[in-house]
Amino acid sequence: MNERQREMRSYGLAISGSDSCFYIPQPTSHLHQKTHTRPETQLPLPKTRFFVPERIRVAQTRSQGRNQRWGHGGEHKELTFYELLGIPESGSVTQIKQAYKLLARKYHPDVSPLDRVEENTEKFIRVQEAYETLSDSRRRAMYDRDMARGLHLAFSARRCQYDE
């Protein structure tokens, strides 16, 4: 084995002399430190640049997208279940059912125009979630507590824990 191949050895594998850009020195312990010399003909390696985007809050991004799809363009706040159903926070179970029936008839995928099925399906799922939450007294109390703390965006995740 010639000197160049010995220099180019990496983890027990010899790399041919023409592949000098793949030179990886063998790991050495502090007891047996060797000085590795790079071949004179090696070109400088290009500098690697990494793009690190700013941290994006997932819930905020999802709510912004949903609000734009619901026609609230400039707003960046998530509709509460009460706002979605169009009832006051003190609304009765009867009011919740009436609002749900109206919106379910409007947004149900089976009655949606073909060009709006996807959009209306998303709205229907959200209306269904609001109805299921607000019509159950325990879920409604938990939702109200979370809203008071400013956590209504995370309610769906908590609901899964409650249901189990």
TrEMBL record:
User: What is the protein's name according to its record?
Assistant: DNAJ-like 20
Q: Which domain of life is it from?
A: Eukaryota
Record CDD domains: DnaJ
One GO cellular component term of this record is: chloroplast
User: Pfam families annotated for this entry?
Assistant: DnaJ (PF00226)
Q: In what residue span(s) does the J domain sit?
A: 80-147
Which PROSITE patterns does the record associate with it?
DNAJ_1 (PS00636), DNAJ_2 (PS50076)
